[in-house]
Write the structure tokens for this entry.
Amino acid sequence: MAGRRARKKRLPEQPVRATIESLAHDGRGVTHVDNKVVFIDEALPGEELDFIYTDIRRDYAEGKVERLLSRSDDRVEAKCPHYGVCGGCSFQHVDSSAQINIKQSLLQEQFTRIGKVTIPELWEPLTGPHWGYRQKARMGVKYVAKKSRVLVGFRERRNPFLAEIEACIVMNPVVGTRLMALSEMIGDLSIKAKIPQIEVAIGDEDCVLAIRVLEPPTEADQERMRLFAEQYDIALYLQSKGPDTIVPLPGLSPVLPEYALPEHNIVFQFKPAMFTQVNYEINRKMINRVLEALNLNDQDTVLDLFCGLGNFTLPMARKAGHVVGIEGDQPLVNHAKSNAQMNGIENVEFHAADLSKPIEQEWAKRSYSKILLDPSRAGALDVLTYFPQWNPQQIVYVSCNPSTLARDAGVLVNELGYKLVKAGVMDMFPQTAHVESIALFEKS
């Protein structure tokens, strides 16, 4: 019948036997069936297994393990009872030491395949806590009338629905062990169906939860929230629209969470929705690696691109002559300036600029001895065109996406004349397939 939507093709119900050949960049096992690549959740190289199809497309298919016939030596039992349903983690079935080795191998493969560059020397991987490390998160909230309960947490794996979980052992326990208490508190509110998410921002001392509200809470709602905040020593904020509408719950004092870099005598303050690294221990080690690689002195003028609230800018300023931080988000720039002032650091300047567009500002017309890059997952391709003009002798590139780092490394080495000196991975996100990496380039 014309206009009727085509029915989705029924998936085969019988398990299919396969041997896993390798891992994809997202941590899924890769095999081939009838000359088509199949990505299989929680499958490891070398394992023989039976799998069930979960999706079949023209160019690839997806599946899940039905039965393991052989086990990789790297396989362990997942620690979280919600693993496989909750989409927050994808690597809990892999031994923690093997996780970082897999990520390092992936980095090398991406550099070779995408960037056409070989890593001459690998940094020792930076590792830290495997559990309870996550200080920042955006959690979903959903009132499910049929279950008469509020779900708080993360989406199901490959599914838009919120997973029904009771705790999160990757989150800092101050929040991760209290998801049910949060659920019960929200379930008592008159606006329980009007709360879609919570921003989690945990500092070294304080925990702030910014609750997104689509309708204003009643006086009774506010009192229930205040009791929860007092019971668990958590600061509650309300967010009515965008991030700039985040304000303390009426009756509660403002709290700005902080994280410190004790070795550098620096303390950062940040607002709940502002970007900060989620793993403070790895962040501190990462900053030290950057400083060691750049070997700064008071003659250096450094450009810090995608600087955020000054996470690298301020510790670099403790060593360099002058540091210029550039960030696309004006509120972050303002906060970076406040952090510099709070820490008594005067040899820095911050500017707001969209680094994906042509730059006309005065700072872009100078030259710099050294440059730090810490872009988003999209990488830094657009801004690399300015590097011949800035003429840095050294570049350190911190990345949360090895494929765009590899692409940009190819430009720096094969087009702009830099030499890749070293690269390595940092275990910023244990139990997930996310790869945080770092590379050092020098002028040939």
Summary: The chain is about 20% helix and 25% strand. The first helix runs from residue 96 to 115. The chain has three domains: 1-75, 100-129+279-443, 136-248. The first strand starts at residue 16 and ends at 19.
